[in-house]
Amino acid sequence: MHFSLKLIGEGKTYKEVQKIIGCSAKMISNALKWRAKPETRGRKRKTTIKMDRRITRMAKAQPMISSRMIKDSLELPVSTVTVRRRLCEANLFTRIPRKVPLLKKRHVQKRLQFAKEHINWPKEKWRNILWTDESKVPTPPSPSHWYVLSISATSSICRWYILCRGLVPP
């Protein structure tokens, strides 16, 4: 704190402070007006922290949603570019989704054949079956007009399923 401000704060008049310090009244006036301002650079943000959280939450809940749809549904007073910037700050980047290969006719026929062979099994026997399916399917990149909001891109899909009912593992 400036010495003249301290003296004024103690109840001294401008004239008394002038005599003590040996300066002009204008210098004391300027010292009273002066306030330390926090260092700011650039333009103020248009979105608040709360808005940023809402944008991120919506994008994580619906990865296929566009920045325009986020802006319109949340009624944000910013551009779609600003929405995209906030998503990038939250490490949510747009990626082209991979196409998942569909089941081939051979796979469908084998599954149908298995179901027909075991259609007459009693429920007790089905309850002791442990179903597993694990497969890693490489997916080639394909151009698309849809984008997904994700943290990182993957080049293959690994699926692993296990279904069991009434079966105690060893």
UniProtKB/TrEMBL annotation:
Source domain of life is Eukaryota
GO terms in the biological process aspect are: DNA integration; DNA transposition
One Pfam family per UniProt: HTH_Tnp_Tc3_2
Q: Which residues cross the membrane?
A: none
Domain annotation Transposase Tc1-like: ranges: 52-120
Q: Where is the signal peptide?
A: none
Molecular-function GO terms, alphabetical? DNA binding
Q: What is this protein called?
A: Transposase Tc1-like domain-containing protein
**To which species is this protein native?**
Mola mola (Ocean sunfish)
The top of its lineage is: Eukaryota, Metazoa, Chordata, Craniata, Vertebrata
